[in-house]
Each structure stands twice: as structure tokens, then as C-alpha cells.
Amino acid sequence: MVVGNVSVQYAQVYSLNTGHTSDPQRQPSIGTVLRETAESLAELPQASPHLEAILLLREATGREHTELLAWPETEIPAADLARFDLLVQRRLAGEPIAHIRGQQAFWTLELQVTPATLIPRPETELLVELALERLPAEVPLLVLDAGAGSGAIAAALASERPAWTLIATDRSQEATRIAGKNLRRYTLGNAGVVNCDWLTPIADGSLHAIVGNPPYLSPTDPHLEQGDLPWEPRGALVAGADGLDAIRTLSAQAASRLRPAGFIALEHGFDQGPAVRGIFNRHGFEDILTHRDLSGRERATTGQLSGQDDRMIKR
After folding, report:
1. Domains identified in the chain and CATH numbers
2. N or C: which end of the chain has fewer CB within 10 A?
3. Which residues pair with 165 in a beta bridge?
4. What angle do CA 290, 202, 197 make, to 5 degrees?
5. pLDDT given at position 55
6. What span, in angstroms and rounded, lies between the C-alpha atoms of 117 and 145?
7. Residue ranges in the chain whose pLDDT is less than 50
8. How far apart are CA 118 and CA 312, in angstroms?
9. CA-CA distance, 79 to 70, in Å (whole number)?
């Protein structure tokens, strides 16, 4: 495997006893370590080698990002280098950097993640943008993050809209535990978590909006064997033969749980826009639109129930 070759190359570059191979009398500098580690990590598929090298060195040394870049000539102590070596070996074995660090940046937040939660991705920030854009800011709305995982969407919206109340639901007990920790970390008193299956315990006609990143892959999707996905919970990725079972369930439940003029925004696969629009239409949603992410791919679809609710009028 390529990863195995990379590991050997890396072992030749570093020795925990002697430091950098070019000068056994000195410990390697920050700049040298970052450069050579990035070269090794570049062999991994879907890696961001320079950023990942910095993140791993931050984790091993406790130094800030800016410090690592500002003082490249600083030598790295042997103990820090030993910790760094172990972290890099884990990454070279394919383990997601978010799992190695135990956290992932999302929106303006740094969130705890574990193998029990989906790793928040930049593409999902589109859901946050759509909710902020479409819903009135200063009105006390009840908004639900369905299948919240780490609670990324709920935490982002709660941090931006203190007038709203956010509910994060997930059927995984471990995921709801992590989501709760993330909400408490940022003292988001306007958000809470519920361990449940989608919207099952939510009262009819109680929600103003539902946002979510449900599973949307089929069991045969080749992406399941690529990048970080093999390390993530399969239940947060796969939803039936065509990948749309979770979206069907959520759309059906949302039609009764939302208030008149209630808003829904769900993430989906780049080729699922037409199918999701059809599902929304069958459940009575109107003003159905599919939105593209920063790479230009269709990534989320929104809809709204008919009727009128003064709270839903953006002023």
C-alpha cells in the first residue's frame, strides 16, 4: 500500500532518538518538520498536507498556529517530536485528522468529535447560511437540527441567533452526549439535545424550521471506501438502497411537525436534487429550491409549507 511506503519514508526522515537525519546533533526545526511531514502526507488521498501537518504539530506541541508559522527555525523538543511522530503515523494509516485531534472546526466553532459522530464538513455550512438567510433573526423561533451528530448545525445557529431556540436530535446516545458537550462548551443556553429517532417525540405544529444533514448514501456508493468515510459511523452515512430513506422519513414527519409557513432545509448528494425536490413536493412543500455549495455542486434543498405565520415574515 502507498500508506505503508509513506510510513517507511517518514521513519527514514525522523528518528525519535537522534532527531532530523541531516544533523544528529540538533533537533529538527518547526519549518523542517512541517515541510517534510507535508511531503509525506501528500501521498494520502484527499489530504490537505500542509494544513494537516500544522494541525498535528499544534496538537503535539501545544503551540498556536501563528507561532508555528512565525518561528520556523525553532527546534522541537524530543518529547514533542515523539508525540508528533505517533500522531503522524496514525494519520498515515488513514485515521481522520478530526479523530486524531478529537475536534473539528465548523462555522466559527471548534467542536468535539468522536468515531460515534459524523465529522462536520465545510459543505454543511451551506445549511447554516440558508437558515440565517431565510429566517427572521430577532424572532423567538423553534428550530430543530435533525440527526445532529456532534451538534454542529445547532451550535452554529444558536451562536448566531440568540433569539432562537435550537433542538438537536439524534438516535445515537453517544452522539447526543457529544452534542450536549459542544453546546455547553460555548454556553449556548438557547439549545438542547434530545436522544430520539428523527422527529418522533416532537409535537405536531410546533416547529418553525427543520435543518439537517441526514444520511444520503446507498450501501454500494464507492465513496464509502474513500477518504474519512470508512472511519465514520455507517448509520450516519447510509440510508436505504437509493440513499433517500432518511430524507423520505424526515420530509413526511416535517410536514406535520412544522407550523404553517414552516421551513425545511436538508443536505443531500450532488445528484439527488431532482429526487429530493420530488419528495418535498409530495409532502406539500412549496417554494422548493436546490442550492449549490462552493464547489458548484447541488448540495441542499429547501422548501416551505403553505399558510401564514407572522413570526416567519423576515423584516
Report:
1. 2-94 (1.10.8.10), 103-312 (3.40.50.150)
2. C
3. 142
4. 75
5. 96
6. 14
7. 1-22
8. 31
9. 21
